[in-house]
Design goal:
Largest interface: A-B, 23 and 31 residues
Strand order of the largest sheet of chain B: 4-3-2-1-7-6-5-9-8
Strand content of chain B: 5-15%
Strand content of chain A: 15-25%
Number of helices of chain A: 5
Distance between the termini of chain A: 14 Å
Shape of chain B: globular
Radius of gyration of chain A: 16 Å
Number of strands of chain B: 9
Distance between the termini of chain B: 46 Å
Structural class of chain A: alpha/beta
Number of strands of chain A: 6
Oligomer: heterodimer
């Protein structure tokens, strides 16, 4: 999969979604392979980076994980400005969080980078018995709005790597490498891609 | 409240009087400024906006409304903001408060920049920052007009949009702020304006030290700076003076020079030489700052007021052993026979340098957080505790008594409860005090936060509050007492949680100005990396370094 002489891409990725939907848990599962049952709330925003190999390119995601509370909404544009990709996260047990996810999609469609690749993540898929958002409804919504959709579980790791990988694959390979916006706080060496994908 | 402020006040007799008063004041200050030329040309009002308000507290209802004007006189542009007379939206605001905030004929030659805030929700406001670093409180344009305001300035003064931040307009595009402003440095007011002038003494214990007395030794210089800034808030006149800034720069420089010293030592420079150099720097510390910023003329005559409460210089030197924490015996020596703290400054200074023993925190934090006043007696405090206990129960009952049926029709309540419940179960769960799944302490956090969101319904609940409450509950152990300590803390920190982020903005802005003055290479690095908004410090400031140093 990873061959020599391939292109290197830097891509800014932003996570948006309701408070407690599991944005930080998804990133931490992806970047560190860890999961905390009681992941502390994100104040302001958190930054991570992770590199993965896809097709003939190496994609370095610079990930901005945002605070979910409505009160911090006004900070969000700073983080999604110039983003090449976004994951909008909701909690499959919460109808409200799905409604909020739709609002984020609208906002990004209106104000985000027009070429932004968007993914919709129905997180906490392990809580099937508490499900309140039917997968079909979300899938339909995603299709209508040009997003790709996956149900994920940061707890069990289901589809977590896949959603990031899928985003990386969809990035236009011709996209010029952009310099990171903001300061790099955590820089992790390339680890390649851990879990299997598309199989 | 709203209606009285919203309608136009130009017909109001009191208001007219205040305008006269304002003009008279302005003329006075002008004539004193221009006494040499003796100009007495008529002033031309080029911009006038009513219902421009400042918010001295976090409550928008306690705003002071007034009239903002741009006046052209003798080729110079001046700005005035005069509060309306006799128009108090709250009993807590006195005429004295108003005159404190009045802006009397500021010439634009003194203005450094104007920061524009146009939040999607809430009112537009601008923050006017003088070249000296002093910032006026945010001016809220209740009737709009920020764009017009800036456009008018542009017609009459040099105004240019900052390359770094589209919302910052530089008025006098100064190349070297240090050069222009050293003699009148009053920068920290940019911080203090966000705090109510009557705010209680700040705790100077590091918030990261609450679980046990041992962890604080890892204190960072930044935390110290932060704590000492807060300690100074009470007295704006003695807000971080140039002296303190000087000492901060000492810290910065020590960090920087430790590295270069290592190199020097490796090159065979004697230790003694380095040691002497260090001492030289301590005594001639000011010119060195100036050197590093290429200031040619050293302002040797900068007035440095003698301040007995200032830190002694040596205490900020790296490696000085920290004092042992304040113990019970020493504490009781600070109290008079009836239990009053006779010298609160001394107590806070002592705690700043050493912290407090775990067992004593329960008692001392009530003072530090501002719940108990230092001049209260044992008897008064005992009484207060019992009164406050029943008051707490009363407020708590306001939400306790909401039935399921009522809650169904009370979205705001359900939402708030939901937010709080999501956060308390993930606050400090690694600490044994909170680690059980059905911990009564988690429930207690929830109850206090929910009660607070009723006590201060306008502010409500905001992420970060649970982080601030958690150590308080851990130390106090008692629900009602923790609530009132938290209330007192939020009196000070409330503006940080405002929807429009104005409290955070002015503090991050002040921080950027501090770094610009004290460590220009770092400032330039941030500038280059496009992070002069200092949002990477957001969490540190919002929850007072609480998640650091674990």
């Amino acid at each position: 999969m990873a061959s020599t002489g391939h292109t290197n891409l830097n891509a800014k990725l932003v996570l948006l979604g309701d408070m407690g939907a599991g944005k930080s848990s998804l990133v931490i599962r992806f970047v560190k392979g860890q999961f905390l049952e009681f992941q502390e709330s994100t104040i302001g925003a958190a930054f991570f980076s992770s590199t993965l190999a896809v097709n003939n390119a190496t994609v370095k995601f610079e990930i901005w994980d945002t605070a979910g509370q409505e009160r911090y909404h006004s900070l969000a544009p700073m983080y999604y400005r110039g983003a090449a990709a976004a994951i909008i996260v909701y909690d499959i047990t919460s109808v409200d969080s799905f409604a909020r996810a739709k609002k984020w999609v609208q906002e990004l469609q209106k104000q985000g980078n027009p070429n932004m690749i968007m993914a919709l993540a129905g997180n906490k898929a392990d809580l099937e018995d508490k499900r309140n958002v039917p997968a079909e409804e979300a899938r339909l919504y995603a299709e209508e709005n040009g997003l790709f959709f996956m149900e994920t579980s940061a707890k069990t790791a289901v589809n977590v790597n896949d959603i990031f990988y899928e985003l990386a694959k969809r990035l236009p390979t011709a996209q010029p490498s952009q310099s990171p916006a903001g300061m790099v706080l955590v820089d992790r060496p390339a680890e390649g891609f851990r879990a299997g994908c598309c199989t | 409240m709203h209606e009285t402020d919203v309608h136009d006040l130009s017909d109001d007799a009191d208001y007219a009087a205040s305008v006269q008063q304002g003009l008279a004041r302005m003329n006075r200050s002008d004539s004193s400024k221009q006494s040499s030329s003796g100009e007495q040309e008529g002033a031309e009002i080029v911009f006038l906006k009513d219902n421009v308000a400042i918010h001295p507290t976090q409550y928008a209802s306690e705003r002071i409304s007034g009239r903002l004007k741009l006046i052209k006189q003798g080729g110079s542009l001046f700005m005035t903001w005069i509060p309306y007379k006799g128009q108090s939206s709250s009993a807590r605001l006195t005429e004295k408060d108003k005159s404190l905030y009045t802006i009397r004929a500021v010439p634009f030659s003194d203005v450094g920049s104007i920061r524009r805030h146009t939040p999607t929700l809430g009112w537009q406001y601008v923050i006017v920052v003088l070249s000296s670093g002093l910032a006026f409180p945010p001016l809220y344009f209740y009737n709009g007009g920020v764009r017009e305001f800036l456009a008018t300035i542009k017609q009459h003064a040099y105004l240019v949009r900052s390359a770094e931040d589209a919302n910052v307009f530089l008025v006098n595009d100064f190349q070297d702020p240090l050069q222009r402003t050293l003699s009148s440095l009053e920068l920290p007011r940019a911080v203090s304006v966000t705090n109510s002038p009557s705010s209680a003494g700040a705790p100077s214990e590091s918030p990261s030290s609450w679980t046990d007395g041992k962890t604080f030794d890892t204190n960072s210089a930044l935390a110290q700076q932060n704590a000492s800034q807060r300690q100074k808030h009470n007295d704006p006149a003695r807000d971080l003076s140039i002296q303190v800034l000087e000492k901060f720069s000492l810290v910065t420089r020590f960090a920087r020079e430790t590295t270069s010293q290592l190199f020097r030592e490796a090159q065979g420079d004697g230790f003694i030489l380095n040691d002497r150099r260090k001492h030289d720097e301590k005594t001639h510390d000011y010119p060195r700052i100036a050197d590093s910023n290429d200031v040619q003329k050293l302002p040797e005559d900068v007035p440095v007021p003698a301040d007995p409460l200032e830190f002694d210089k040596l205490s900020l030197v790296w490696g000085k052993p920290r004092q042992p924490p304040l113990g019970t015996e020493e504490w009781s020596a600070f109290l008079d026979s009836e239990g009053r703290v006779t010298d609160s400054e001394a107590v806070r200074k002592r705690i700043f340098y050493g912290g407090v023993e775990q067992d004593l925190r329960k008692e001392v934090w009530r003072f530090l957080l501002g719940y108990h006043s230092y001049d209260s007696t044992y008897a008064e405090r005992e009484y207060l505790v019992s009164v406050k206990k029943s008051e707490y129960e009363m407020i708590k009952n306001q939400w306790k008594s909401i039935s399921k049926e009522q809650a169904k029709r009370f979205t705001k309540f359900r939402e708030r409860k939901g937010l709080i419940e999501k956060d308390v179960v993930r606050t400090d769960r690694s600490i044994s005090f909170y680690d059980e799944d059905d911990s009564p302490n988690i429930k207690c956090l929830r109850d206090i936060l929910l009660t607070y969101s009723f006590y201060n319904f306008d502010l409500g609940y905001c992420q970060g509050m649970s982080d601030l409450l958690s150590p308080i509950l851990y130390v106090m152990g008692d629900e009602s007492e923790s609530f009132w300590c938290f209330v007192a803390l939020m009196e000070r920190l409330g503006p940080n949680f405002n929807r429009d982020q104005n409290g955070m903005h002015s503090q991050l802005f002040a921080l950027s100005k501090l770094v610009e003055l004290l460590d220009s290479p770092l400032h330039n690095y941030f500038k280059q990396k496009d992070c002069l908004n200092y949002f990477f410090c957001f969490r540190w400031v919002l929850i007072q370094f609480k998640r650091q140093g674990v």
